[in-house]
Amino acid sequence: NAGVMQNPRHLVRRRGQEARLRCSPMKGHSHVYWYRQLPEEGLKFMVYLQKENIIDESGMPKERFSAEFPKEGPSILRIQQVVRGDSAAYFCASSQSSGVFNEQFFGPGTRLTVL
Amino acid sequence: GENVEQHPSTLSVQEGDSAVIKCTYSDSASNYFPWYKQELGKRPQLIIDIRSNVGEKKDQRIAVTLNKTAKHFSLHITETQPEDSAVYFCAARGTEGKSTFGDGTTLTVKP
After folding, report:
1. Which residues, listed in sequence order, are joined to residue B48 by a DSSP beta bridge?
2. Element (H, E) at B87
3. DSSP 3-state assignment of A88?
4. Fewer C-beta within 10 Å: chain A N or C terminus?
C-alpha cells in the first residue's frame, strides 16, 4: 500500500520559469492538502482540495500560485514566474475523508530551488 | 486566524532524561492538536494527537497534555533515546483540513 507520492523530489528552476509539483494521494484518499516549509520554519498551509474542487485556498498567494486536483491523475501545484523567495520544501498530505480529526498523511516533499 | 507558538526552538537533553515541548494557540475553536516528528530531509510523521475533550493522552514514552482554558498543550518524552533526535512540530486544527503549525523544536539527545 503505497503512501503519498510526490514528484519530482528536487526541482531547480531559474527566476521567471514555471514550477509544477505533483502529488498522488494514498489509495482511497480523495482529500489533498498542500503545505510550504521554509528553511528552519514550520509548515504553512496553502490549499485544501477535493477531487475537482478547491475547498480552502486561504493560505495560497493570490498571484502566480494555483492548484488543481482533477478527476483523474495527481494534484498539481503550479508556480508561475518563480522568484528566489519561492525556494522551499513543498509537502502535500492526503486524508481519506474530511473532518477535523482525520489523519493527514504526508508525502516526502518536493524541494524547490530557484536560482 | 489561528496562531501557534512553540517553545523552546532548540532542546538538548542527556539520554534517559525527559524532554518537554510546549505550544500555545490563539483560536478557541481549535479542537484537534497533533504532534509530528520530522527527521532531516524526511516527511513529517504523526506521533501522537489529542482532541479537545481529552486532557491527557499517553503512548509508551510519549504523552501529550492539553489545557483548553489556557489554550496550551505540551509534548512529554520520557527516557529519551538518541533516535528521538529530530524536529518536533505541534499543530492546531479547527476548521476541517487546515492545520496551523508551530515553528518546530529541534531536539538533540546526547548519548
Report:
1. B35
2. strand B86-93
3. strand
4. N
